[in-house]
């Protein structure tokens, strides 16, 4: 543990120079492995959505068995939340817990077994390292956010879809088993040009914002909602099967159609949906969902179309002559 005090500055520099979440996690893991070399077991739990609505999950652990047996994460977070904000270390019977706070909320913790007792002078440095991690994560996440809607932006979209196709969403398998599929939906506000032309761009922006909020609040926390372009959104979400995915999208479509938009009245969206399989490129998935969306527009708008139900579109997709917007 003596390494801790001498390396604080170096570790800070290492953490703030990471430019992806994945590399930031790896960097923190290697720092903690060096800092806690004398501890036989440790684990870092954190809520990456930076929200208390999501129970912190394991970012890395030195032994899953130890954790499964001893950590009741929701109970521990509840207990940490009741602590005074000045408390930086909680000593339990078999482990020491360093709470990780962001904007005053407990978003996670570092658990270290009692084989290495962390001296007061050193848990301050570890707390500092964990703080730098949280702030660097927040900085990386803000760069991925669309300023108008606070949704994930287009730049984040490709990376997230590639991660999902590569099977990097491990939490999902832990929670639902292997029989869950991912779907991509493209959603576009109907006749939006009319809104801009008749009410002006400021009201147009407000319509985009309200649609974004309705989309975000009607999908689950583990689903991804992106602002893909001006009045176009992409939603990437797991579902048991395509029927359920269409049902979900149609229920959100109906909620938007039933909402009264200030000044404008009613607004509808059209959607297209395709499954994310592991044998195509991100651009192919977007094309498929876009073709289905185009079909929804052709069929009269305010509806959901699944790419799998479009035989003619599949043919034209293969010959590459589909007309997209
Ligand atoms: N206010 C506002 N308007 C935008 C934004 N991005 C794109 N637009 C406008 O959105 C409109 C999109 O119109 P179109 O693509 O022609 O389609 P539409 O009128 O929505 O009709 P359909 O999609 O066929 O139902 C254009 O007038 C764009 O200028 C934005 O960020 N804010």
Main attributes of the structure:
single chain, 325 residues, alpha+beta, Beta-Lactamase, Alpha-Beta Plaits, 2 domains, five-stranded antiparallel sheet, five-stranded mixed sheet, 12 helices, elongated, binds guanosine-5'-triphosphate, Rev_trsase/Diguanyl_cyclase, Nucleotide_cyclase, GGDEF_dom, EC 2.7.7.65, diguanylate cyclase activity
Can you tell me about this structure?
This is diguanylate cyclase. Pfam families: GGDEF. This protein is α+β, with helices and mostly antiparallel strands and 325 residues long. It has two domains: 3-142, Beta-Lactamase (2-Layer Sandwich); 154-319, Reverse transcriptase/Diguanylate cyclase domain (Alpha-Beta Plaits, 2-Layer Sandwich), CATH 3.30.70. Helix content is 48%, strand content 19%. The chain is built from twelve helices and ten strands. The chain has helices at residues 3-16, 21-35, 64-70, 73-81, 120-142, 154-165, 170-176, 192-199, 201-218, 242-258, 282-298, 311-319; strands spanning 42-46, 57-61, 90-91, 95-102, 105-113, 181-189, 224-227, 232-239, 269-276, 304-306. A five-stranded antiparallel β-sheet has the order 2-1-5-4-3, with helices on both faces. Helix 1 packs antiparallel against helix 2 and helix 1 runs parallel beside helix 5. The longest helix has 23 residues, at 120-142. 33% of the residues are buried. Residues 319-325 have low confidence and may be disordered. The structure holds guanosine-5'-triphosphate. Guanosine-5'-triphosphate binds at residues 188-194, 196, 201, 204-205, 208, 230-231, 297, 301.
